[in-house]
Amino acid sequence: FKMARRRNKTTVLMGCGLGPLNTQKYQLCAKELIELSDKVIWRDEASAQMCNTMVERSDIYVLDDPAIISAQQYLKEKVKQKENYVAINFREFPNEYGQNKSLTIEEIRILLRKIAENHEVRLIPMHTFFIGGDDRDFFAEICDESIHEKVVVQYKPQNLHELYETYLNAQACIGMRYHSVVLQTILNGNNYIIDYTNPQNGKISGFLQYHMLEEKYEKKYFNLQNTQKWDLEECLAQLERGDCVEFPQIDSMERYCEIIKM
Fold first, then answer.
1. Using one digit for the tens of pLDDT, what is the confidence trace for 47-92?
2. How far apart are alpha carbons 179 and 67 in whole angstroms?
3. Which of 8, 33, 127, 217 is most open to solvent, judged by the fewest CB atoms within 10 Å of its CB?
4. Is 85 helix (H, G, I), strand (E, B) or coil?
């Protein structure tokens, strides 16, 4: 961004959330990135509000996550072909988000064994880089000798369309990382959300609030920072019930283009 500024190139920060920023080092780094951006378009209101406490500027925008636009475009071109598997994304609980009070690895194993009694289980990584925690490392830790043979880890990273197809055709989905939640909600609808972010202003609750889905996911959502115990049986019941939430159709691409050209 500094190089672009020196060469008089337009810089755009878009499709991002902001935080958590628990140390001054990262707060200053984020502040500098925002100041170096000619256009700033956040994907949720909470990020915009945090941004306003860090910098003084009036041209801060909030628009739908671009991943939504991409997934809905894909959905227009495909027909669901339900197959007998459940697509699941877990991630290791990150320290910077607080403490996981309510879900253990053993409970995850019990869930996987229960689902595998009736369905194939596909563990789908959403992050395969070393920095940020490779989901496949966590899956390998989960899959000890007690795990059912029908539990399969997707070790080879999928391209975007392969990932979309996996969530689209699944009998049901469980998501933990933010974009697994976004894509499963749009492409499938029969999905259960395990939220590791802040229940008040985290990115996952922000996504549900922004699209007015909180009520629809009341029984299909659990936050790991809650003090109450996670109800495994309720999760299984919701997935087997097969009630699909319909995501509202959006079209923000033109607005993105407008803002960038301004």
1. 898 999 999 888 899 988 999 999 999 998 888 888 999 999 999 8
2. 8
3. 8
4. strand
Alpha-carbon distance of 48 to 91, in angstroms, equals 26
pLDDT tens digits for 97-123?
A: 666 666 888 999 999 999 999 999 999
Residues 6 or more apart in contact with residue 202 via CB below 8 angstroms: 46, 97, 195
Nearest to 91 by CA among 124, 62, 115: 124
Angle of helix 203-210 relative to helix 45-54, nearest 10 degrees?
Answer: 120
Secondary structure element (H or E) that encloses residue 86, with its range: strand 85-88
Nearest to 14 by CA among 262, 257, 180, 203: 257
What are 47's two structure tokens?
């990020």
Q: What is the identity of the amino acid at 102?
A: S
Q: Please list the residues that pair with 167 across neighbouring strands.
A: none
Q: How many CB atoms lie within 10 A of CB 157?
A: 13
Both structure tokens of 220: 């299909």
pLDDT band at 194 (very low <50, low <70, confident <90, very high): very high
Q: CB within 8 A of 41, min separation 6: which ones?
A: 12, 13, 14, 15, 61, 62, 63, 256, 259
Distances (CA, A) of 46 to 2, 26, 42, 53, 200: 26, 18, 9, 11, 9
Residues composing the chain: 262
Asked if residue 15 lies in contact with residue 69, where contact means CB atoms within 8 angstroms, the answer is no
